Amino acid sequence: MEAKLTDFKQYLKKMKSYEEAIGLIYWDMRTGAPKKGIAARSEVVGELSGELFKMSVSEEMGSFLDHFTSSGVQSELSDIDRRIVSECKKEYDRSKKIPPKLYQEYVVLTSQAESAWEDAKDQADFPGFQPYLEKIVDMNLQFIDLWGYEGHKYNTLLDAYEPGMTVEKLDQVFGALREQVVPLLSAIQESAHKPEIGFLKQTFDKDKQKKFSLYILEQMGYDFEAGRLDETVHPFATGLNPGDVRITTRYLLNDVNSALFGTIHEGGHALYEQNISMDLLGTPLCSGTSMGIHESQSRFWENMIGRSRPFWNRYFPELQKNYAGQFDKVGVEDFYRATNEVKPSLIRIEADELTYNLHIMVRYEIEKALFSGAVKVADLPEVWNEKYREYLGIVPSHNGEGVLQDVHWSAGMFGYFPSYALGNMYAAQIKRTLEQELGNVNELVREGNLIPIKAWLADKIYQYGKSQTPTEIITRVTGEELNPSYLVDYLRVKYSDIYKL
Amino acid sequence: MEAKLTDFKQYLKKMKSYEEAIGLIYWDMRTGAPKKGIAARSEVVGELSGELFKMSVSEEMGSFLDHFTSSGVQSELSDIDRRIVSECKKEYDRSKKIPPKLYQEYVVLTSQAESAWEDAKDQADFPGFQPYLEKIVDMNLQFIDLWGYEGHKYNTLLDAYEPGMTVEKLDQVFGALREQVVPLLSAIQESAHKPEIGFLKQTFDKDKQKKFSLYILEQMGYDFEAGRLDETVHPFATGLNPGDVRITTRYLLNDVNSALFGTIHEGGHALYEQNISMDLLGTPLCSGTSMGIHESQSRFWENMIGRSRPFWNRYFPELQKNYAGQFDKVGVEDFYRATNEVKPSLIRIEADELTYNLHIMVRYEIEKALFSGAVKVADLPEVWNEKYREYLGIVPSHNGEGVLQDVHWSAGMFGYFPSYALGNMYAAQIKRTLEQELGNVNELVREGNLIPIKAWLADKIYQYGKSQTPTEIITRVTGEELNPSYLVDYLRVKYSDIYKL
């Protein structure tokens, strides 16, 4: 038993090594790999990914799993080891159920679809992308049949990003959220107390932006001996191992906030990955537990800390110093309100904290309808525009800023979008418990005393990695399952104050 | 036949992919990987290297080689394919002849030896390193017996770095070189016309150093779309694939030349790797043919171009502009002479172009004697100091600046050192042909017209990668085998002029 377990863990460690190597190659490709080397480098990724996939579905893996899931043996395993086995088994079953030829076809399709999508988006040409998307949806429906499903077919897709999440649950939480957010948004739009935002849009030196971003990261407790900050077109965080969690941001010269909040957001993801217990190193549990919980951490730090009043009470003077002369005539309250401007917009990734949730609900409704068969791909532009009118009160002038704006569908990532809004809900719920357990959090933030907050999150969430499910984590930490009312309350209180409702 | 060849090449491409991934990981570790991630990253390297080694000695590889070296088949192969097979066969035989247990023992030994060496060097404590070195020499002697040898045992070690090189040949060329260099050095030391070098040692802004380094690289024809320049403690070049050849340099704030010539040196290595024919991509021939030929290119660009008078006639005004105010009172001739100061010194990596060869000869004589049994490890400090007195006229005051100065032996790299001096000889010989074929090279350099030089080298040498041996290359390009007289002539002319001998 011990020997077999050692062999199994050695096998998993090898898989993790491949994953780490692939992760580093991707980081490098995005941050500064010379472009003429990319074609050959992609083949390297192909080789390593192919090997990794083979290992995940090999006969050897199959025999390990048979052994460790057999009745006599399973019960002898430690909780962590049992979780490792079930994680591998889930992956194994998911992969084994797809015939290799079909999977290969899908890989080719999505890689072609991604470049077709880029062109289509540039030219606002939905018909140019439609056949790819139809085929991708079609193949995902085949996959769902092969994988099996309970209740709604879309549940199987959701489960890949947020284990255990269902349409039933999402309908409930998104419904409750929307019911409150839509009237709140109307009230905000009717408010006479709109923030001035002009001073956010001066020209800001890139080095100064970088310096301030690094400063805030350090304040959050981001460990620079276990990470680094680089520049990319699209910000991201990547946890190669807990001792090497890198983040990137993007500097817009005419916007003081874009790089900063991008950094804080990715920094939140990074705090999670940096603080996973070293006991989980080399196992499949050494990563965040789900997209939703991960996003809860990036959004907690970005919005609930970074866009909070106490945060700017503490850090606005530092910002003024950093951009000497540029904010002399701006008050901290003005800055705080500008930073939290709410305004319906067409592009998800530029949306504010409040309306962001509505962008997600549009996508959720559409994905759900696609996989129930209620909507056809051909109808998406119309459905999209109609939903934007209904949820946000505005309509795209062309499909490039509408249904074609996101990359996700071209890569077959259905079921991913809800994670973003789930992250907001988890974050607000966790924040409530944090306040109960840690005392006056606003006071800590006002003092720039962010480390106890990080430490609490590390203790309650980060250290566990994937050894607990999202539901287990949220229930253990907050005492109840996902409950949208915390986010609703948080948003109402915050924005009623800012817009004097 | 065709199908089997395709399979074989696929297999080799996979090996190259692993090599490329490992290469990137090393680059990253040296340029900026967060230190807390290094331990886990080293295990990733271990996994991938282990796989790569297994592939190189697998039964599958064995059966490919049996097939493609069998009499009926070999003759059907193209020249390139035959070379690919023989390259793999050489590696295969070399690895297969060492029992895995012995090799494993050696890996552990050298990794321990490297840290023992670091301590020993710091404390000038040869006895602390001696037992490791004894064991390493011992095991290399065992390897030589297993590999087999012709003539001198040391030939087998030389062959690993410079295929075909022998003690017989090295004795001849180093002898001829030494016979001329030693008296030339004496004459230089007695010359009354010593350059002033004080102005090289001002304080130089790092960003300006970087800017000038990048400018010169661009002048050399280094392709920035196929590479990048970073900063490390020890400069290096790494060719991941011909479209991604990265170099690093080190900035010393009190030395205008260190980073610059480091950059040009590594840039020379990089030009070689960037210009290997894409036809060789994914094969074991897609790299420089030997350490000696590689070093010929770094040294050609560093010394024969970069430290030449026409180069500074062209670029000294640019240097003056780059370091505004710092070289106003310095003439180009003064700068040229200072940059070529000759002075016996104790440390190889700080040596000038002329005495560098003597540092190498000391090491060559010692390695040769170690493997013939004429010298024992215990006697090395004494032998080392004696040779330095004889060749360079100076003696280390302690072993840290003497026999312990280089990392090579702790890593078991015997036979490597001669490559550096071979590089100088190859470079001078190739330069002669270049001048014959390209017309007035000095004139091109004086005009800053370096691209035709790069193009000629790419055409004559770089594109071939490892598809020709060093001897084939030098003979084809220059019409004769390695001949030290070109280096001797070059050094005599250059330094007689500088020192007015």
From TrEMBL, chains A, B:
- Write the protein's name: Metal-dependent carboxypeptidase
Q: How is the cofactor bound?
A: Binds 1 zinc ion per subunit.
Cofactor(s) essential for the protein: Zn(2+)
Which residue windows are coiled coil?
none
Q: Which family does it belong to?
A: Belongs to the peptidase M32 family.
Entries under PROSITE patterns matching the protein: PEPTIDASE_M32
Q: Which organism does this sequence originate in? A: Paenibacillus tyrfis
UniProt-annotated catalytic positions: E266 (proton donor/acceptor)
The UniProt function text for this chain reads:
Broad specificity carboxypetidase that releases amino acids sequentially from the C-terminus, including neutral, aromatic, polar and basic residues.
Mention one GO molecular function.
zinc ion binding
Record keywords:
Carboxypeptidase, Hydrolase, Metal-binding, Metalloprotease, Protease, Zinc
For whether the record's keyword set contains Amino-acid biosynthesis, the answer is no
Which Pfam families does its entry note?
Answer: Peptidase_M32
- Give the enzyme's main class according to its UniProt record, as a single word: hydrolase
Protein residues bound to Zn(2+): H265, H269, E295
Xref: InterPro entries = Peptidase_M32_Taq
Q: Which reaction does it catalyse?
A: Release of a C-terminal amino acid with broad specificity, except for -Pro
